[in-house]
Amino acid sequence: MERLQKVLAQSNIASRRKSEEIILAGRVKVNGNVIKELGFKVNKEDVVEVDDKPISRAEHVYFLMNKPTGYVSTTSDEKGRQTVIDLLEDNHRAMRVYPVGRLDFDTAGLLLLTNDGEFTNKMTHPEHEMEKEYLARVDGIVIRKKIAQLRKGVIIDDDYLAVPQNVRLIELDKEHQSTLLSITLIEGRNKQVRKMIEAIGHEVKKLTRVRYGFLTLEGVERGSYRPLKIHEVKKLYGLATPKKS
Length: 245
Prior knowledge:
It contains seven helices and 17 strands. It is α+β, with helices and mostly antiparallel strands. 27% of the residues are buried.
């Protein structure tokens, strides 16, 4: 037995919160009866309708993509740019998958896609502290003092203190005057890594997300993707469960 709003979210009707609004508005029927109770539970045999149309419970799929730069992390783009959905095979595109969170147009690397609203909510909710590691190729030589500054946290977006989980120096390329840094975050503000680097007086030349929780890009070439294994999905759910204090 599962809560009605969860079943609606898992069937890609709407997000969990929006599904609750749909239920309260009297738009949902179970076995022909209008249900306005948010705690109402249904089983697989129950017939659920939204606006008098039966819902179909979607088969949930989960993909790990190695996103190239030059693609937007949305299902469509008003500017006509290519989206990550264009990289999917036709049968996977037909499953109505979408990105979990997003990577900027000019950022490459690990991106999850799914058609599971509950999974998306778990992975993107602020209270679920999922580590995301980025490799940033930075213009210029970043001195130790500035790396220490990054570790303590820097102000971005005028008044927000951005504090990384970890910052590591990977390489100093004196010949080409660049620095390779590993930066791990548990949050995901818009262009956060780039803004953090700008706050210490440098500019990101190239940015790649190389880790999401325990997942890496191993075996997945740029522009390709693979399905997540069941145990990987379960482990992600485990990582996204708030720890009891």
